[in-house]
Amino acid sequence: MSGEPDIAVPARALGDPARGRIVTALLGGRSIPAGDLARAAGVSASTASEHLRVLLAAGLVAVDHRGRHRFFRLASSEVAGAIEALQEIAPRTEIRSLRQHHVSEELRSARTCYDHLAGDLGLRMADLLVSSGVVSELKIGESSSAPEPFPAGQLVHALRIRPTQGRRPWARGCLDWTGRRAHVAGQVGAQIFSAMDAQGWVARRADSRAVRLTGRGAALLSELEQVTNELV
């Protein structure tokens, strides 16, 4: 039998500005080499290695070995959700350049939160999923099962949405720090981003976790919203 969770363990691991920048860089869901994380954190390679050791020990990140190289990622979607939630209560950094302003606007517009969409686009997709009956009303931190019978329609077909087996919940309300309400995590959140990425609805930014809606994606998403609104 175990007792209550010891939140001091992850809190200590995150209690350094450089480690905070490292886990934020990993929120995009990609595996990133230590050298790139050192640059993102603004520290030397040796210092980054020590920070990564602390994060590994706390269970916040995991490492994949590819030959002689090590690639780091967040340990789970739950870790990503916790970090995103911390961003809601964290003080905002001061924007000191035009580039920082552009990056901030891009992140607010659309970004990845581990393996699902966040930002304005993520909230837009959440509204569409709820209206279509694919997910029930979203509550932050709460999970829900796939509806039965499972709805069929243009949205489900276009984004290849289907329930799958496994421990991961069908949908979970994940706190969006920019919109201050829930976007969709869980199976359906991951499926939607994967389908939109594979079909060219969104394009990833090379140097951040921001994504943008392509012209094709904008047209198809508007069509889906129109069809859904007509059915509601």
TrEMBL record:
SUPFAM superfamilies: Winged helix' DNA-binding domain. It comes from the Bacteria. It holds the Pfam family HTH_20. GO terms for biological process: response to cadmium ion; response to lead ion. InterPro entries: ArsR-like_HTH, HTH_ArsR_DNA-bd_dom, HTH_Metal-responsive_Reg, WH-like_DNA-bd_sf, WH_DNA-bd_sf. GO terms for molecular function: cadmium ion sensor activity; DNA binding; DNA-binding transcription factor activity; lead ion binding. Residues 1-94 form the HTH arsR-type domain. This is Transcriptional regulator, ArsR family. It comes from Agreia pratensis.
